[in-house]
Write a structure and sequence with these properties.
Layout lengths: L3 H5 L5 H22 L9 H18 L6 H24 L1 H7 L4 E5 L2 E2 L1 H7 L3 H10 L8 E6 L5 E5 L15
Length: 173
């Protein structure tokens, strides 16, 4: 027999669920900002954060580990609320945006590698040259600017003023 109360009645006070979601969101956001952006791939740091938090918040309710669906939903709603709130606040307040949103980092300026960024993001010269080749560039001196973008991709502007799109992999026959 199903015990409806054990499924829907919160085991935690509502405020505690909201506080847990708030603390986890900002703690993981800070950790992701400190860790850097290189490994996040095509998703933005905030996207990864939301996916991880929502999965973690949903897991206890899915596996009945001392948590009801309502407890998990409260935490998930809180996480999504803070995600939207952080985006809205950073849109309206650029100062706040610089604190919570990743910015492009220079990798190459006037054909010269920016060693500081490479050191911070653990990028070797070979990895940067590999990315340039994907953009169809053999000679680094042709690069006016190259940036490590917030989504982990590298954008390149050549001296002729044009950006180069990465060469796509040919499809298998």
């Amino acid at each position: 027999m199903l015990e409806w109360q054990s499924i829907f009645v919160p085991a935690l006070p509502l405020l505690e669920g909201a506080v847990r979601g708030t603390v986890m969101f900002f703690a993981l956001l800070a950790l992701m900002r400190i860790a850097g952006q290189r490994e996040s791939g095509g998703l933005g740091v905030t996207d990864v954060l939301i996916i991880v938090l929502v999965a973690e918040a949903a897991a206890p309710a899915l596996y009945t580990q001392d948590s009801t669906l309502t407890d998990s939903l409260i935490v998930i709603v809180t996480i999504v609320f803070w995600s939207v709130a952080v985006d809205a606040i950073s849109y309206r307040l650029p100062v706040f945006s610089h604190l919570v949103k990743a910015r492009p980092k220079p990798l190459i300026r006037d054909g010269q590698l920016c060693r500081r960024t490479m050191h911070r993001e653990f990028l070797s010269r070979e990895e940067v040259e590999s990315q340039l080749r994907l953009h169809g560039i053999q000679d680094m001196s042709r690069v006016q600017q190259a940036y490590l973008e917030p989504n982990g991709m590298i954008s390149v502007l050549t001296r002729d003023g044009e950006g180069n799109a990465p060469v796509e992999k040919p499809e298998a026959l």
